[in-house]
User: Fold these one by one.
Assistant:
Number 1:
Amino acid sequence: MIPGIDDTHNPARTSWVPGAEGHPDFPVQNLPLGIFSTPGGPRRAGVAIGDSVLDLPLIAALLPRAAAACLSTPTLNALFALPAADRVALRRRLSELLSDESHRAAVEPALLPVASCTLHLPCAIGDYTDFYVGIHHANNIGRQFRPDNPLLPNYKWVPIGYHGRASSVQPSGVPVVRPNGQRKAPDADAPAFGPSARLDYELELGVWVGRGNDLGTPIPIGEAGEHVAGFCLLNDWSARDFQAWEYQPLGPFLAKNFHTSVSPWVVTAEAMAPFRVAQPPRPEGDPHPLPYLWDEADQARGALSIELEVQLETAAMREAGLPPVTLSRGSATNMYWTVAQIVTHHASNGCNLAPGDLLGTGTLSAPEREGFGSLMEITRGGAEPLSLPTGETRRFLEDGDTLTLRGTARADGRVPIGLGACTATILPARA
Ligand SMILES: O=C(O)/C=C/C(=O)CC(=O)CC(=O)O
Ligand SMILES: [Ca+2]
Ligand SMILES: [Mg+2]
């Protein structure tokens, strides 16, 4: 079940917190959860509201008991392990506390400016899996890696994924050290080892797993929604030169496990409820998914109406005081498989998902150039370099480049809510 819409989503609801109303990411209709610290203080749970962070342990006495017991821990894993109903109760109470002026005196002392906080990973990530549901990305990139065979025949039957590396997932802001690795130029006799010359990003959504499933017990598709705690932005940094050389036959390995960035706030599945839309119908002639992946309710509301944007700022642009350039604008509706389908498929063999596990959707490219989700697609593998306002060009990312992903959920008659930025700067390779 996908969560329902209630009064916490009411567009008429406003907050007494200065700056919350009209905030592009965090109005009172959002209330994303995260882990933060202040200098000398422990990691603890918080909620973003406008440009403030609400320190949840400080107001635990005002919150529902089940959730309150999980807020002083340095991760959200315990909170995400609770039944979704406990998260709903927490959301309703937070919405009331932050919108009803009568609670202001009790709650305001627990608000901190976000600029004074360090935002951490929301969970201790046991496992991270990256999918490949962006069919336009799969077509575009497949054409470059396998010109005769871009989209393999399993794509429309199986939600394809690979097991990523949890240890190198980092919150937004942590710089990315250019990886060293093996690459082989097409005309070279042997590979060489050194810094990647084709460092790329991948625009993805992250899905935070809520309640887990027992080993050996699959998740029926009708119940997949209850295992999703929320969403973030995810950048699956990719060394395309290493990838092309190493990925056959077992799939991505060192090309993608050196660093993965996530936006630090978890926009809950409940907050996202008004932005769930019908899954676009499959093109004529595509196979009908197997029964374990098919659910009419999921097809009716399983897609996510989230606008996505990627911006690049080079060191020279920063020095010249020029604003970042927008590389692409796309939409999360470009998913061939829904979130419920990837969750159910992942657990279909009895694999156990655990609270705080992270799933990447795969790169979400639109069909057109304006919405491509990686430089590999935008520059067609480097063949069509981008021209920047400084006179620089880019085929792939250079040291000093800062890349930022943003996402905003929108629906008619609703207050838009944002995922917050997922940003990082590239540092030179280390010897
Ligand atoms: O071999 C291919 O076709 C490409 C594989 C990937 O790039 C893996 C990946 O990270 C999938 C994605 O982000 O969509
Ligand atoms: Ca990826
Ligand atoms: Mg990665």
Number 2:
Amino acid sequence: MSAAIELDKVRFSWSSQVPIIDIDHWRVDCGDTLLLRGASGSGKSTLLSLLAGINKPQRGEICLLGSDITRLSARQRDKFRADHIGYIFQQFNLLPYLSAHENVLLGVHFSALRRQRLTQSATQTATDYLSRLGLSKQQQQQPAAVLSVGQQQRVAAARALIGAPEILIADEPTSALDTEHRDVFIKLLLELSQANNTTVVFVTHDATLAGHFNTHTELSQLNPLPQTASAGGSNV
Ligand SMILES: Nc1ncnc2c1ncn2[C@@H]1O[C@H](COP(=O)(O)OP(=O)(O)OP(=O)(O)O)[C@@H](O)[C@H]1O
């Protein structure tokens, strides 16, 4: 099984003194659906920003699909992300004045590679994804700003998955939902991901979601606490 994600001796700090991420080694296999759990403030979003190439560690290697993205320029990392990573942000980051449907099309707008992977037109694919996720034709044409939180979340998921990126990163996208809507959303998200053989890293502080995923990681086991790291503690 090849690695979708492999980290080696990765260290990152926002300030110069205290590393918030200090990971000796971590590997996620291609096709895994992984739940990454950690307490609030433990560094989950920071780790995801490194995986997505938004930030770069001060030390170490981050190999995604066999490429070490720490060797790429900021511009090359942006391109890598557009081509290979779907990202569902905590606050969804939809463009409020664009319709739900137009927001989904943005997922393939910046990547010729993702457009090439479509098996039908981008417009039809966006319609199909949104319909499968439960948005009516009418809701699909409404500006994102007037949609409910649950609807916006599904638009963000469709945008992240269109064009079959190899890796999906989801940063606590269910925190605003009740249990029933949350479970339905996760099942659909995993169904769509598995149809594309997309590797999923789903971040949450909620351990009760573990049953949906085939593997789990506790950030505290991967990454020593900031105080421990600054005192020179070892990894894992
Ligand atoms: N842009 C930033 N600049 C400086 N410090 C930051 C920045 N983003 C996060 N931090 C700090 O890094 C630490 C970890 O934050 P992070 O958002 O990664 O945690 P988290 O586990 O995702 O938290 P939550 O579950 O509450 O979203 C916090 O102490 C936070 O203040």
